[in-house]
Write a structure and sequence with these properties.
Layout (H helix, E strand, L loop, with lengths): L28 H4 L35 H8 L22 E3 L17 E5 L28 E5 L4 H4 L2 H7 L16 E3 L11 H20 L4 E2 L7 H12 L7 E5 L7 H16 L5 E5 L4 H10 L6 E5 L1 H7 L5 H19 L11
Helix pairs in contact: 6-7, 7-8, 9-10
Length: about 350
């Protein structure tokens, strides 16, 4: 997914004693290509004051850390090939055409009666604090809030301030792995951590974010969960590398996820570009695709048109939930609206009741 850039520190000077990337020794030279070189490789992409050499005051290895060696030490290499996972077979992990994302709040006291269905939710709805693991008492018993037979899918399409600390959070709380938390046993599928790749990130940061996303896939699988790899990219080269790495697990992977929520840019143009680029590489692949973020009928039609009416997509967003809970009506009417919105997105996903023309 192409995201807008960080506010860059254009006047960055690396602190003394830290390893500013150098073209002659940079491990990513073969990947960066002609874009490699200072100031394009300026390591600090943060608008805040530079962090201390070798690490940040918050204990998180992030874009504000100027020491390249620290970042590389955390991912070992930029190679994606060690990725080895398996998924629950597709016939035992059925997906509807539309997955409503919900926001749990200790028992859903918002008046909506939930049907037996597949539901999604984002990590930041389970914890809004970046310095702690999931600590809300009700989160451990999350499945009890849903009708028997429902499926739950967790994603990490959350703010970077919530996602980035995950990298080191487990050690602070004495866990062998972040994924050992009991809350994750509630989920039938976990989409890999979204380590965002921004268009104006230096190339090395893009490769490291991509590698961290794949490391999270391995960790989720190793902890015994059904992992759903996510495509994380800002250029076709990154998309190619990610697809090739997943394709190496073709026999074991039947479902992937993509993020198509556009922010702070020309949303229509960016969305069309991303859809066309995804189609270029994903059409030959047999995977089911969970699409997060598409909300409008024209965007769903655009995706279906570019993929020649392909029916392997599952659409996931918060619209059904948020639009229903905001209604100032009786609970029965909220529930009816929620159910009807699920039906509407299901129809759109099946190519029914879509607008005749794609509207920009």
């Amino acid at each position: 997914m192409v995201l807008p850039g960080h506010p860059a520190n254009k006047n960055f000077t690396p602190p003394e004693g830290t390893s500013q990337p150098k073209c002659d020794t940079c491990l990513a030279k073969s990947l960066c290509g002609p874009s490699c070189g200072y100031p394009q490789c300026a390591w600090c992409m943060c608008s805040q004051d530079p962090c201390s050499p070798g690490g940040s005051g918050c204990g998180v290895v992030c874009r504000a850390n100027h020491d390249l060696d620290v970042h590389l030490a955390n991912v070992n290499s930029l190679d994606l090939t060690p990725f080895q996972v398996a998924q629950t077979p597709a016939d035992k992990f059925l997906l509807p055409r539309y997955i409503p994302k919900v926001i749990p709040s200790g028992g859903f006291p918002l008046g909506i009666s939930l049907p037996k269905w597949t539901y999604g939710m984002s990590y930041h709805t389970l914890t809004n604090r970046q310095d702690v693991i999931v600590d809300r008492a009700w989160a451990t018993h999350l499945r009890d809030m849903f009708p028997p037979g429902s499926q739950l899918i967790l994603d990490f399409f959350s703010p970077d301030t919530i996602v980035d600390p995950i990298w080191h959070l487990y050690s602070k709380h004495g866990l062998r792995s972040f994924w050992d938390q009991a809350v994750f046993k509630n989920f039938d599928g976990i989409i890999t951590v979204n380590h965002s790749i921004y268009m104006d990130d230096p190339m090395m940061q893009r490769w490291i974010s991509l590698k961290r996303t794949f490391i999270s896939a391995q960790e989720i699988y190793d902890a015994g969960h059904n992992v759903i790899p996510m495509l994380c990219w800002s250029s076709e080269l990154e998309l190619q590398r990610a697809i090739e790495a997943i394709a190496g697990q073709m026999e074991n992977v039947n479902t992937i996820a993509v993020q198509l929520h556009m922010i702070d840019i020309d949303r229509v143009a960016a969305l069309k570009y991303n859809i066309e680029t995804l189609a270029k590489y994903l059409k030959p692949m047999p995977w089911r695709i969970i699409v997060n973020g598409l909300t409008s009928a024209w965007a769903i039609k655009e995706l279906r048109n570019v993929f020649d009416g392909d029916s392997r997509f599952t659409f996931m967003n918060t619209n059904a939930w948020m639009s229903a809970v905001k209604l100032n009506v009786a609970n029965e009417l909220k529930t009816d609206y929620f159910h009807r919105t699920i039906d509407r997105y299901t129809n759109w996903g099946n190519g029914v009741d879509l607008p005749k023309d794609v509207v920009d």
